[in-house]
Design the sequence.
């Protein structure tokens, strides 16, 4: 076995020599590692780019919804009486509101018992909902109870396991229905209180009992729980009414309104009223609805800010440093240039909506010399004052029709920008679906709506036919605003088979190739190092042998020389 370390044999520094040689041999491996690090940095950089694009998309996607530009501010003249919100479809203006009664839920109470553990009885409770109308003399009409068909009866079994006052309460609450039960101690006894969870006259209660004692009408046993508003006390009407079911009563611009709830969504179109209290007698409060320009301005500003954040990321990834020390990881990358060009291409083109406002510059949004977007709020405010109706189309999906009785009602991501002919062969109604074509292809009818056919350029484009004649009904021109286009573009860029995914997959493939190359080099380096060690160990042994021979010869010559001199 050869000697492989210094200080043994000839003293040749085998380790040092092999290490120096291997340092030279490892240079290709170092170059592979350097390339791999560079590729890994690019993968990370593309991850950052995709994350920034996703963040930008999230910020602008809401702007592609037309409702964002229908923001309305609602003001209540007396917030102690009512508050209100609008969904963007309400008519701007001022209404006068007076509230004379709040909606209330019915409350019924049982006669008191000494303890919550007292047995009430067994049998079955059936709770029904409906409207109770008292008898009248002018005109003559008997009292009545009209069932609420929107609600089903509740049946609750009371047996030996739940026949106490607290057990009945728990059984009612366990039904998870439109009633609740509680026990109130009035100072001398405990009373079961049953409350309808829903307000309004149509949610009055009727409680029928099947008493296990055989008499379901008396005030003994479970019959104590009976409450038929048409019966008499002690004979099927054994609970006491603490509070009657009431509708909310209000007046809007002189029109009397009665509703079962204090949250009213169908009195004023597009407005939700939340009733809180009643008006002072003889007074009313104004309900003011106006366009919320500040909220819309915030939406446009959000668009500008979102783009500028994306721009910061793109610039950091592609920046150039003359020294080369801090250049961006993706400097000069063709895929990134393509992304930048596509995004800017959308933002610098005009929107062919047919409106007077068709570019960002017209509303005060423009590119600075630095590449950033800037917002001129004064110019935006002026646009909202003079061309407000055109503003939404600049960002969202929208359409214009040439027939006044044909209106745009929606689209999908499949709908392509373009102008499409509309032909009606049958008008629709609440019981009959419209029929006809859009873009010359049979459309899907749904009541008064027609929707573009699957697979056609007009797919998902929906229009409402409000009447008129059968036959050609002009055209509908569909456009996508900036936010809508950018939303679609980024979805395409971020797809699993998009250019960013393809680029990342390509880099990862290169990393895999480099890993295989590194493995092959390592195998070769191991063999090379073994060969070097074997060679220099043999050399060490040879030199040691020669040194030994040299020493021997020197000794012999010295001995011969000494003998010859004696």
Sequence:
């Amino acid at each position: 076995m050869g000697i492989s370390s210094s200080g043994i044999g000839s003293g040749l520094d085998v380790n040092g020599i092999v290490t120096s040689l291997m340092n030279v041999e490892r240079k290709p491996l170092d170059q592979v590692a350097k390339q791999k690090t560079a590729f890994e940095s690019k993968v990370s950089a593309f991850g950052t780019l995709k994350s920034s694009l996703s963040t930008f998309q999230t910020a602008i996607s809401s702007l592609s919804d037309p409702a964002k530009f229908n923001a309305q501010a609602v003001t209540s003249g007396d917030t102690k009486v009512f508050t209100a919100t609008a969904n963007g479809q309400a008519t701007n203006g001022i209404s006068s509101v007076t509230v004379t009664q709040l909606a209330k839920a019915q409350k019924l109470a049982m006669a008191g018992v000494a303890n919550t553990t007292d047995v009430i009885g067994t049998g079955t409770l059936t709770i029904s909902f409906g409207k109770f109308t008292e008898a009248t003399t002018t005109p003559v009409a008997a009292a009545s109870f009209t069932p609420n068909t929107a609600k089903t009866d509740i049946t609750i079994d009371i047996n030996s396991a739940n026949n106490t006052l607290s057990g009945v309460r728990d059984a009612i609450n366990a039904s998870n229905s439109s009633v609740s039960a509680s026990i109130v101690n009035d100072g001398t006894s405990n009373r079961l209180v049953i409350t309808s969870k829903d307000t309004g006259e149509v949610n009055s209660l009727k409680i029928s009992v099947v008493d296990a004692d055989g008499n379901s009408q008396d005030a003994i046993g479970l019959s104590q729980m009976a409450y038929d508003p048409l019966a008499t006390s002690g004979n099927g009407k054994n609970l006491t009414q603490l509070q009657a079911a009431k509708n909310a009563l209000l007046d809007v611009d002189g029109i009397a309104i009665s509703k079962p709830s204090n949250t009213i969504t169908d009195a004023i179109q597009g407005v939700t009223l939340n009733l809180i209290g009643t008006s002072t007698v003889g007074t009313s409060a104004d309900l003011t609805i106006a366009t919320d320009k500040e909220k819309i301005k915030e939406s446009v500003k959000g668009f500008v800010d979102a783009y500028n954040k994306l721009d910061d990321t793109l610039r950091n990834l592609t920046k150039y440093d003359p020294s080369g020390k801090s250049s961006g990881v993706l400097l000069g990358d063709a895929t990134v240039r393509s992304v930048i060009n596509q995004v800017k291409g959308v933002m610098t083109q005009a929107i062919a909506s047919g409106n007077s406002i068709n570019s960002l510059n017209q509303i005060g949004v423009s590119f600075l010399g630095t590449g950033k977007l800037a917002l001129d709020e004064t110019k935006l405010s002026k646009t909202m004052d003079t061309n407000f109706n055109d503003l939404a189309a600049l960002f969202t999906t929208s359409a214009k029709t040439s027939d006044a009785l044909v209106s745009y009602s929606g689209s999908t991501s499949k709908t392509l920008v373009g102008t499409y002919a509309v032909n009606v062969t049958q008008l629709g109604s609440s019981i009959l679906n419209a029929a006809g074509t859009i873009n010359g292809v049979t459309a899907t009818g749904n009541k008064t709506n027609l929707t573009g056919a699957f697979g056609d350029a007009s797919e998902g484009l929906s229009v409402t036919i409000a009447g008129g004649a059968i036959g050609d009904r002009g055209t509908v021109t569909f456009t996508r605003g900036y936010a809508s286009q950018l939303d679609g573009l980024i979805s395409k860029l971020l797809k699993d088979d998009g250019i960013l995914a393809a680029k990342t997959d390509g880099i990862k493939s290169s990393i895999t190739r480099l890993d295989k190359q590194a493995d092959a080099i390592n195998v070769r380096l191991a063999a090379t190092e073994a060969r070097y060690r074997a060679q220099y160990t043999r050399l060490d042994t040879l030199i040691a042998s020669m040194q030994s021979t040299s020493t021997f010869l020197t000794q012999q010559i010295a001995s011969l020389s000494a003998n010859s001199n004696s």
The helical segments are 14-25, 27-61, 165-174, 293-318, 334-348, 377-395, 482-493, 499-565. Residues 499-565 form the longest helix (67 residues).
